[in-house]
Fold these 2 entries.
Entry 1:
Amino acid sequence: MKKLVVDKKYNSKKLNKFLQDKLPNLSNNLFYKTLRKKDIKINGKRVNENILVFENDEIEVYIADSLLENKIALEIVYEDENILVIDKPAGIEVTGSQSLTTLIHKQYTTCEFLPMPCHRLDRNTTGLILFAKNQEALDFLLDKFKNHEIEKHYLALVYGVPKQKSQTLTAYLFKDSKKSIAYISDEPKKGYSKIITSYTVLEKNPNGTCLLDVEIKTGKTHQIRAHLAHIGLPIVGDGKYGNYEINKRLGYKTQELRSYILKFNFKTDSGILDYLNGKKIKSRAI
């Protein structure tokens, strides 16, 4: 049995939206089957309809844990005594219930220190996630990310072809937490944070798409997806910032965005991680 409390973000949202966000492996079929069996309670009362939920509602879901467990096999790209680099698939959060971190902890149960992520990717963005395998490494890596001493490159398949082969863009981003969406402005505005996004065209395709190498100098939520859409280069398959008709025509259902390079460019003391300086870890392409 899972017991959950509805947070403000899901106030007045449908029950299935809340549960499927909190329980990533809860399929539509399993959700409605559970409803029909009246195996979901809201504030102690059994329900059999996909009703609205409200902030602070207590929800109990009577589903066997085995049906909600991730069946994802971890793809380890690199590992040593201090760090672990995983190739994250789409459809799973980095942290939280039934997350990538949860899966890793289940496989490293004998370790004194459970590997911890040093950065994040969106649920449907694939690619490299760096984990620390001890507290000293974690402290160093969090500091290195903060000081931009770890270079991250992404592959983005976008619709459209930019006029310039390579460009560094500056704009301003506002994250609306209630709607879980980012807005971009070319001019400074109150509440907006400065963002810097660089891209280089790697490949042009006959269907009107092109593949970009993207590097972000600032790490804001949805930065790449929102910024590229803002300049008329929506990521193919992106349901939030992309173009529905184009996604449908091309047959993509999730965003074609992938973290594929991590490069360590340490400029300050790196202690036990000094051996990583200058190292580049690369994964497969989109």
Note: The first strand starts at residue 2 and ends at 5.
Entry 2:
Amino acid sequence: MYKIQMVDVKGQYQKIKKDLDARVIATIESGAFIQGPEVKLFESGLGGLLDNAEVVGCANGTDALQIALMALDLQPGDEVIVPSFTFVASVEVIVLLGMVPVVVDVDPETFLMRTEDIEASLSPKTKAIIPVHLFGQCVDMKSVMAIAEKNNLFVIEDNAQAIGARCADTSGGMKMAGTIGHIGCTSFYPSKNLGCYGDGGAVMSRDAALVQRLKMLANHGMERRYYHDAIGVNSRLDSIQAAILNVKLPHLIRWNTQRQEAAAKYDAQLSGIDQLETPKRAASSEHIFHQYTLRIKEGRRDALQKFLAEKEIPSMIYYPVPMHEQGAYKEVVQCRVPLTHTNTISDEVLSLPMHPDLTDEQIQYICDHIKAFFSA
């Protein structure tokens, strides 16, 4: 059996190697390394996939979030609502810009931001909401947008883990994640559903004025070379990374479907074990399984992870320490609601290998050992 990988970037590369190598070499030979044709082609292609939203490439997903906040002219001291159970970038950029993260709890089944906590956390200083589309499915954006409209708030979707998923919008239909809020942000970190071979990211919007400002801020605050109309940053998607993404983009929907099929196979094998909970699907969203994340009960999570490692089965804990307990942030975040579920799931979550190339043999091997652990 081929060695099980948490994310099999090498195996995926072998399947697209011929096209990818040719594309990268052609980009190098062109000499167009910064804002070259591959970048423009990728921005257009991803925008087409995302229901014709406008896409602006940038250097990474964290920059995407920072540029989005900067584009909205938020000020130091303004409050931004964000879940505590998230990767640090969602909170980090708020603090770096002198704003205040106000953290809320998550749903115990989907791990997504509790929209009912948003209104309970509002104050006159609240200016924005960052719903984090975690592990491959989306926050209830219909509710988020209703709250935002009622309270005149901006919405920045952190879509680093749900690129290509559809979720319910305010019209009652389904739209691509990242295209419902005022701005969407994503990452092309190598392990993402759509990943490059280094760092990369993008912002997206349907608002033409916002798109123009996002482009300017990501390019040193200039529209015309050497004329700086705003204080910006240097954050551009590299042409070589864009070339890699152009090869991968046509495969994204199929790869997401393969992830869903692998998740269904996990479900079938593991759903009968009382001491764990398999991932629940949000009613308002597709789940494209950036991660397949279990809840392990009775304090046995760490023991299971150790047992799996002994069987050469990788697993990961996303995220063991929520933001309100992190040393760098616990004194700066504010919290106005109980974080009961966040505190519990941080001690229980365990993510299993998940990628499009998982074989039935590998899934069976993983599940057999999980069953053996709980039956011992």
Note: The CA atoms of residues 150 and 237 lie 35 Å apart.
